[in-house]
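Table S2 (continued). Query chain:
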Amino acid sequence: MTGGDASASGLPRRVVVLGTGGTIAGTSARPGDHVGYTAAQRGIEELLGSLGPPLGVERSASLALEAEQVAQIDSKDMSHAVWRRLAERAAWHLARPDVVGVVVTHGTDTLEETAYLLHRVLAPDKPLVLTAAMRPADALMPDGPQNLLDAITVGVQGASAGLGGVLLAMSGRVWAAAEVRKVHPYRLDAFDAGDAGPLAHIEQGALRRLRTWPAAGGPAALGLQVLAADIWPEVQIVTSHAGADGRIVELLLDAGVQGLVVACTGNGSIHQALLAELLRAQQRGVLVLRALRQGSGCIVPGGASVLADAGSLTPSQARVELLLRLLAHQPG
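Corresponding output:
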């Protein structure tokens, strides 16, 4: 998905920043409280203002920043409606010839899900860069302003180098949306990509690539129409663990679930009692996908696997994948 070249059109280059809330926009009643704050209290215009005097990528008169508030929520409360709205607005701005990249400020709790959804739906040729923070905006030493500035840097320099796709810029590193996952509840470097590692570092306002950039665009993009349904399919996550008996699957089948992700032990193994119920669900037409419940690695194929696997996707990303598969095949 591309909207042409800004320089060719004679328009100034522009980065659009879409705000959705999250910790990066949060405030605390007590200075230094990095846990008891309230998310989504400051608007995106105020966050951009916190960057202070023109810095780095903003010094050029040929570059403009534009802000839009798409939502104002704690990302733990992310909804399908906000996902659709965010995807629509990101796609609209990316199609503009003067826009070289789009930045999204987001909460960290469901960031890996939103990033994966945008990757599968849009797969843009221009940079679509998510960013976030682990400390609220009024912390004594907030991490949000630097992360936001870095995300803008990735948008501008990535576009100049022809590097697109959905990305996360945080803590001085750049991650691919299809690989990133949250691995820590408190540290500033709370994200990782398992075996894949980061795509790049952001050092002193410069993007330094570490490995081959994932290809953007192409058949990976499902398109906005996949999100058009008023009612989305019911997809849930169940976990295999000691003592699992599968009763939760029976309840979900009775409730009309259409897709199930099982967070597995080991190399995609499932308690035999739970497996029996999952196979029954699959026989009834429910899509079932295995994912690893640990934070890294991928399911290594082998043996007589009776349930499909999600490779290196986290259970929450695998849920998004199943959701999109069901949406893509819904009538109408």
